[in-house]
Amino acid sequence: MSELLDKLISVDAIQWALAHKLRVRSGEMFTMRGTPYLADLVLPHRVMHCKKGAQVRVTTTKLLQQVHHCIYGKYRQNVLYMMPTVKQVEALAKISFDPLLGANPFLKKYMTTDTAYVKTFSGRSIYFAGAQPQKVGGSNPKDSANLRSIPCDSIQRDEIDLMDEDMVVLSKQRLRDSELKIEANYASPTYPNYGIDALYQRSTQNKWRIRCGSCGKTTCLVESFPDSIRKVDGVWRRSCVHCGSEIFVQDGGWVPEYPDRDEIGYWIDGLLSPRIDLKLDMERYFESEGTARAEFMRSVLGIATVESSYQLTDKDVYDRCGRDTMRMSCTTECVMGVDVGSPMYVVIGIRTGDDAYEMVYAGSADDFQQLHDLAKKFNVRMAVLDAMPDIHASREFQQKEPYTVYRCQYSEQMPGQPKFDGKEGMVRCNRNEWCDKVYDVFASRRITIPSNCQTVKDYAVQMTSTAKTMIVNPETGLQRPRWIKMGDDHYFHATLYFLLGASRTSPKRLGETRRNIYTKVKNNFYI
Question: Rounded CA gap, 258 and 268, in Å?
């Protein structure tokens, strides 16, 4: 090889793979034919997010990049390659890595360790880890030995949407001593504003735009779908949405929506792949609906979507608006629900019947002092707030308030009625069941909220930013329901806490009054 080529392949993983005619899965030779969009994925990005359709060769490209960087000393430390489960790690070794080593014997001269979980090239190791948490000492904190003790320069998270979010956060600690701090996340998206879709939204949002050879204008296939795929003389073709001429993937390039952002994002949809059968996919698209249509959107187009009848709509919320404006105080004994954060989101109201409610206030508080002042204005006699994230501050607030305060812990497994512990001032409830409760109260029209105003509009946005769907456990294949966050949903959980608190009070009518209790401190967890 020439000196110039040697220098090129030492810095460019794709050129290295092409020069050595690397063979990958099934012994086929790695090629860039039909996939020019992959070239930018191996540029030296510090943080990169790629939402993609299935089988677009992103995993293969990033895997080769990690091997290349280890061999050529681009990393001083190691690589952590994460997948959702240990079984998927083992499958990756059998499907991708073992064939790579078998078909390219020259790689073995660089290798000193070859197990299912560790591959060491030229003194740098690629650690493969399943992002499966383990409870620590039977408590709520989660940990993983796979993610605690590996100093890394690069973390690759493959199918991040299926990973435990706490494990994703934990993995970042592996980069603390790194000068490079490289992170790459890639996945077929699942739900809007969740996982890879949320990460892409905050990135540069690069899209592959194809220039038409006839009119000179550009088309993004996925943005203009289905108009960008047209049937001409009985054949489905990628088409310019401006003039209808056939267009070709190799005539495209990456164009960022937000070029000044630090985190790089790519959207690689399946329509770009040279392996796609346009006829089959268009038939699948037009003949599908419901869950099948949602799966097509995710796996082919790389579009996050949710198919669920359990999601409040704007109409569900606005239909519950009454005639009264948002109150600024109340003499009737009220219940307060608080989603603790910065700021804290607050919902205050009363229980008006066996399973009927009226919300008199929704808003926020910057700190616990403001929360106390709100409680005083609204004559709050019962409050429920989440125990996390500020455990000590919420407990101190609970002890000082002159009314009953419970701190709430969600459980995914605990069925049945919530467990109120008066001695500890804690309430534990099944998260899914009580999210169902919030949905049901609005859908069955058993709550009244203040008349429409800007705060109610903000409230409606957050009440519609979570939905119930079925999650498939990647380890067992079993399905279970889960409410998925698709944006800020603080008011949704504040409403849940309000309903929890209201379940412990008797029905009241607005206008009923009781003496003020805010003149002395009274630690009493019972009503």
Answer: 17
CATH number, domain at 428?
A: 3.30.420.240
| DSSP assigned state of 450 | P
Q: Which residues contact 205 (CB under 8 A, 6 or more apart)?
A: 256, 257, 258, 265, 267
Per residue in 223-282, pLDDT (tens digit) is 999 999 999 999 999 999 999 999 999 999 999 999 999 999 999 999 999 989 999 999
Report CA-CA distances (Å) from 22 to 61, 99, 119: 12, 11, 18
Residue 142 sits in a domain of what CATH number?
3.40.50.300
Which amino acid is present at 166? D
Length of the chain: 527
Domain hosting 396: range is 314-502
* Cα 328 from chain centroid (whole Å): 36
Question: How would you list the strands of the sheet with 426-430, edge to edge?
Answer: 419-421, 426-430, 404-411, 380-386, 334-339, 344-353, 356-365, 447-448
Taking the C-alpha atoms of residue 499 and residue 294, their distance in angstroms, rounded to an integer, is 32
How far apart are alpha carbons 328 and 376 in whole angstroms?
11
- Residue for token digits 């009314």? 403
Could you tell me if residue 279 is inside a domain?
no
- Could you tell me if residue 413 is inside a domain? yes
Going from the C-alpha of 211 to that of each of 221, 241, 255, the distances in angstroms are: 11, 11, 12
Tell me the one-letter amino acid at 482: R
Cα dist from 164 to 2, 33, 129, 342, 473, whole Å: 47, 36, 13, 23, 11
Separation CA 422–CA 524 (nearest Å): 8
User: In this structure, is residue 359 part of a structural domain?
Assistant: yes
Q: How many domains does the chain have?
A: 2
Same domain, 319 and 463: yes
Q: Is residue 431 part of a domain?
A: yes
What is d(CA 515, CA 313) in angstroms, rounded to the nearest whole number? 39
Are 178 and 322 members of one domain? no
CB atoms within 10 A of CB 260: 6
Residues 486 and 339 in one domain: yes
Q: Is 260 helix (H, G, I), strand (E, B) or coil?
A: coil
H/E stretch holding 119: strand 118-121
Q: Is residue 182 located within the same domain as residue 318?
A: no
| Structure token pair of residue 75 | 């990393």
How far is 75 from 176, CA to CA, in rounded Å? 14
Contacts of 474 (CB under 8 A, 6+ apart): 84, 85, 87, 88, 162
Mean pLDDT of the chain: 88
Q: Which amino acid is at 489?
A: D
Beta bridge partners of 480: 471
Q: Report the pLDDT value the prediction gives residue 24, as an integer from 0 to 100.
A: 86
Residue 17 phi/psi, 5-degree rounding, is: -65, -40
What's the whole-model pTM score?
A: 0.69
- My answer on whether 177 and 320 are in the same domain is no
The per-residue pLDDT for range 339-354, each reduced to its tens digit, is 998 899 999 999 999 9
| Residue-level pLDDT at 311 | 87
- Classify strands 380-386 and 334-339 as parallel, antiparallel or unpaired: parallel
**Cross-strand pairs, 114:** 119
